Amino acid sequence: MIKDQMMIDRLADAARQGKISRRSFMNYSLAAGMTTSAATGLWGTTANAEPKRGGKYRVAQHDGNTSDTHDPGKYQSNFDISLVHTFRSFLTMINADGTLGPDIASEWSASPDAKEWTFVLNPAATFHSGPKVTAEDVIASMNYHRGEETTSAAKALLAGVEDITNNGDSITFKMSAPNADLPWLLTDYHLPIVPANADGTANWQSADGSGPYKIVNLEFGVGCNLVRHEEWHGEGAYFDEVEMLVINDPNARQTALVTGDVDACSLLENKTLGLLGRDPNIEVDNVSSAQCITLPMHMDVAPFDNNDVRMALKLAINREEIIEKITFGAATIGNDFHHSPAMPYFPADIPQREYDPDQAASLWKKAGMEGQQVSISTAESITTGAVDALILYSEQAKAAGIDIKVVREPNDGYWSDVWLVKPWCMVTWGARPTPDVMYTLAYKDDAAWNESHFQHARFNELLLQAKAELDDTKRAEMYHEMGMISRDEGSTVIPYFPNFVYGRRANCRRGENLSPAWQMDGYRHASRWWFDT
Predict the structure, then answer these.
(1) How many CB atoms lie under 10 A from the CB of residue 366?
(2) DSSP summary character for residue 455
(3) pLDDT confidence of 29, banded at 50, 70, 90?
(4) Tell me: the pLDDT tens digits for 342-396?
(5) What Å distances lie between residue 494 and 339, 340, 360, 380, CA to CA?
(6) Which of 50, 313, 329, 526 has the smallest count of CB within 10 Å of its CB?
(7) Tens digits of residue pLDDT in 471-508
(8) What is the dihedral of CA 321, 323, 327, 328, to 10 degrees?
(9) Using a CB cutoff of 8 Å and minimum separation of 24, what contacts does 317-324 make?
(10) What would the pLDDT profile of 290-318 be if each residue is shown by its tens digit?
(11) Residue range 254-304, pLDDT digits in tens
């Protein structure tokens, strides 16, 4: 007998609106007197109702620039990343529940030593222009990021690939060393599949893709209109049309969501979450993630070439206060190594670095930096509260006698004119699935995106060993040592790992899980979400 019908009704309503997880729904339903089978049935008729097709989906997207591009090797901005997951496909994808799933590749397998990986291609996959996706297309897409002449940011990810062979309905990667992470690595947003030219090169310029939606018109820095690709090989793509609007100003984005001018909005301001949560027309999604805020210093540029300077700046930041006052608790504390608790092999026993202005002052004086100012650049579009976070950091550092000047840069062009250019700046890294992918992209000695110019022989030795190590215990030990090296000798301050916080109108529905890979359901919102009415 049901003890509390009113509670059941509230739970059912919460499930319909996506406000409650299945686990919580089941626990509360059982507490209210429902049987397990009855609760399961009610969940299935509320939260897991069949998605509906139709409608035009409008989304306000942060971090869009006139310098954005179709060149996958140069993707940098959140607009680039959201768009590529909407109109192009990859060999594999990260599912909404965080597991690895198929995309262009329907299945894959490895040799016993993990030096050869074979990916079977989905015969139903087609480009928007009509042709089927073939092994030639996949190989051309991968080779675009390989070789000495490539300028792709993903070059380091594929550095261990010696050859890719065409088996007709499949391809085989032949590696120079074992790589247990290869199927995960292939989800990286730089590695979409594009058509091959007759000479075997990649034709990314045409903006042809094989993803759930095809581009109708696009103006970088302004927005994009897309329509459903009716021949898409995957599940979803419920909307008839998608409109992505670049709105870099956070207040303007949230206003558009509140007024109903858009159906969803990326990167909400954390300080307004309480207010937005009380609006019955808006649903807020707050997702723990492995995305990371970094403050990289060019290790080969004075004064950051002095580890005493770098350590002083690491000790002069009060991470707890920044998380409390800037993210309003929607973050996990950082420890100056780029390995999130959301990733496997996390070295939880590495001591947490604490705010210590006295020690910071001593090191600053030892380095001969008394009376000198250092500048750090940021922009509002980097993350919610970006400028405020650095202003607070600057105030905290004053207790150590450290003078930090916060330079507010334009949103447009930040990734081309500031990041990798100026010696100290603020960066948001999207979540990567494994530490190997993150370290290979941004900390390997020759990585194109080695944002801190980090050079450490032992770190690079361990990176290569860990990539090839199939024993999980030994691999974890290697990542522990790498974390300690980064923490104590690296040139990056890591304050926190922010949650993904974004919003939807109440009639815009989503599944039970939200991907931890990127904002907006791993930036697959356009293909995974739908309208309820």
Answers:
(1) 14
(2) -
(3) confident
(4) 888 999 999 999 999 999 999 999 999 999 999 999 999 899 899 999 999 999 9
(5) 10, 11, 16, 18
(6) 50
(7) 889 999 999 999 999 999 999 999 999 999 999 999 99
(8) -70
(9) 317/355, 317/393, 317/396, 317/397, 317/493, 317/495, 318/355, 318/396, 319/353, 319/355, 319/495, 319/496, 320/355, 321/355, 321/392, 321/396, 322/389, 322/392, 322/393, 322/495, 322/496, 323/495, 323/496
(10) 899 999 999 999 999 999 999 999 999 99
(11) 999 999 999 999 999 888 888 898 899 999 999 988 899 999 999 999 999
Cβ within 8 Å of residue 443, ≥6 positions away: 338, 450, 452, 454, 459, 463, 486, 490
HEC profile for 223-243? EEEEEECCCCCCCCCCCCEEE
DSSP 390: H
Tokens of 337: 């190594």
DSSP letter assigned to residue 411: S
Q: Which residues lie below 8 Å from residue 310, measured CB to CB, with a gap of 6+?
A: 297, 299, 304, 490, 491
Strand, helix or coil at 128? coil
**In DSSP terms, which residues pair with 93 in a beta bridge?**
101
**Quick check: bond before 303 cis, omega within 30?**
yes
**Residue for token pair 């000198």:** 372
Which is more confidently placed, 35 or 46? 35
Rounded Cα distance between 70 and 77, Å, is: 12
> Would you say 194 and 204 are in contact if contact means Cβ atoms under 8 Å apart?
yes
The 3-state DSSP class for residue 482 equals: helix
Dig out the tokens for 358 from the structure.
Answer: 């006295």
User: How large is the C-alpha radius of gyration of the chain?
Assistant: 24
Indicate left, alpha or beta for 432 from its phi (over 0: left) and psi (-120 to 50: alpha).
beta
Tokens found for residue 158: 């594929």
Neighbours of 375 (CB within 10 A): 13
Instruction: Give the predicted TM-score (pTM) of the model.
Output: 0.77
H-assigned helices in 132-207: 135-143, 182-185
End-to-end CA gap in the chain: 33
Residue 92, helix vs strand vs coil:
strand
> β-strand 292-296 against 492-498: which pairing, if any?
antiparallel
Give the Å distances, CA to CA, from 335 to 46, 267, 294, 349. 41, 24, 11, 11
Q: What span, in angstroms and rounded, lies between the C-alpha atoms of 477 and 457? A: 17
Whether 1 shows a pLDDT value over 50: the answer reads no
Q: Are 501 and 514 in contact (CB under 8 A)?
A: no
Cα(64)–Cα(266) distance, integer angstroms: 12
Distance between CA 414 and CA 474 in Å, rounded? 40
Least reliable range by pLDDT among 14-18, 58-62, 214-218 = 14-18
What is the rounded average pLDDT for all residues in the chain? 93
Q: Give start and end residues of each alpha helix (H) in 88-210.
A: 135-143, 182-185
